[in-house]
What does this fold into?
Amino acid sequence: AQSVTQLDSHVSVSEGTPVLLRCNYSSSYSPSLFWYVQHPNKGLQLLLKYTSAATLVKGINGFEAEFKKSETSFHLTKPSAHMSDAAEYFCVVNNRDDKIIFGKGTRLHILP
Amino acid sequence: DAMVIQNPRYQVTQFGKPVTLSCSQTLNHNVMYWYQQKSSQAPKLLFHYYDKDFNNEADTPDNFQSRRPNTSFCFLDIRSPGLGDTAMYLCATRGMRQGAYQETQYFGPGTRLLVL
It folds into this structure.
């Protein structure tokens, strides 16, 4: 069975400091993994995805994530946080069947 | 640009008054999904269509119905909205390639529904 665990429900960082949002997954097969961002009252925007190519994936707005099979992790990072990064972030896994599993989300707060 | 469009963006309705939310897509994707997202929660899948094949989640209330008249359009009907149905409703699409699901879902901007 598939599952996704986002380890932190809230993360607060100061503007200009690094961001780390943690995601662990469980999957019987080689999964596809995604990070989506959701700003208040908006839909979900795809930040980046891993689909069995390069393990270090670069996304939009300076975000990247590294797929680590040995740790079953797909953590999202950004070297320097910006105020506009404040949003909800969802880690998502699918196995190319019809089931898509969402993590519970991590709310990122940026402190001035 | 190819995209997923939802109308209206905001909808206010009264308790028990039927409401219909609309989703259209220009991606020509086979699969369309409807999610309900309550405040500070992850999206919850209500149902999805693979072409005209309707797939209901086991815990989706009967109050929620859907129609897909063609590839481009999908509707969510809430027959008798309750206060607990206040939420964001998200539509998403997903393509197929050579009989296999493509990896990525594409989301619309959502409809925020308020039931008074």
In short: Chain A touches chain B through 24 residues (CB under 8 Å). Chain A has a mean pLDDT of 91. The CA atoms of residues 13 and 48 of chain A lie 21 Å apart. The first strand of chain A starts at residue 3 and ends at 6.
